[in-house]
Specification:
Elements lengths: L3 E9 L3 E6 L2 E7 L1 H7 L5 E10 L4 E6 L2 H10 L7 H10 L2 H10 L2 H4 L7 H11 L20 H12 L4 H15 L5 H13 L1
Parallel strand pairs: 3-5
Antiparallel strand pairs: 1-2, 1-4, 2-3, 4-5
Helix pairs in contact: 2-3, 4-6, 7-8, 7-9, 8-9
Length: about 200
């Protein structure tokens, strides 16, 4: 089984990436959060993987952190949750959010994921409630900067200075938490630059 790939990001789409490892391109299906953490084509990257084998298909799934992979495996134990639904859930919720939702019995939070109705969300929460505390929250998944023109401009500014998208987004999210929602672009970039560099 392939447990981890380390190489360079060759290409990416809406729900997949091609990781070039020593000249071999691996097609890896990912959540949107993992895709955001991989960076730009040509950037070095590491993904933790899970190989799913079916009658007609071999599918390699990739995750930015081992904890996210653990949650994927746990989600797919629930009846009605296949790899596509599990990736949709991990695209909508971080492993930490998913852990909190399961522990609290918050099916509405899980139902935010595309393709997950209230009935399936309730089943997921009920079946995973007792198991939620056993898994780590997710580890090294990069935080995503909040949407908004000022934060998006700040992320873009850090990327123009050479920071990877995941690092830039995480630094801007930290800076925004420090400065508050009313922060102006110059202050946001200044504080985010300190966070990204340090």
């Amino acid at each position: 089984m392939i447990a981890k790939l380390t190489g360079r990001l060759d290409a990416a789409g809406a729900d997949w990436a091609v990781i070039d490892v020593a000249g071999v391109g691996y097609l890896v299906h990912c959540s949107s959060k993992t895709l955001a953490a991989l960076g730009l084509p040509g950037d070095p990257c590491t993904v933790f993987t899970d190989l799913q084998v079916s009658e007609n298909d071999l599918r390699l799934l990739g995750f930015a952190a081992a904890g996210e992979r653990d949650w994927f495996r746990l989600l797919t134990t629930v009846q009605g949750v296949g790899s596509k639904v599990a990736l949709a859930i991990l695209s909508a919720l971080t492993p930490e959010d998913l852990q909190r939702a399961c522990a609290a019995g918050d099916a509405a939070q899980v139902a935010r994921a595309q393709g997950v109705g209230p009935k399936l969300a309730g089943r997921i929460v009920n079946e995973l409630k007792d198991k939620a505390g056993a898994l780590p929250g997710g580890g090294a998944l990069a935080p995503v900067a909040p949407a908004g023109s000022v934060s998006a401009d700040a992320v873009s500014a850090l990327q123009n200075l050479g920071f990877k998208p995941a690092v830039a987004a995480g630094a801007v999210a930290q800076a925004l938490a420090e400065l508050g929602e009313g922060a102006v672009l110059n202050d946001l970039v200044r504080v985010a630059l300190k966070r990204a560099a340090g």
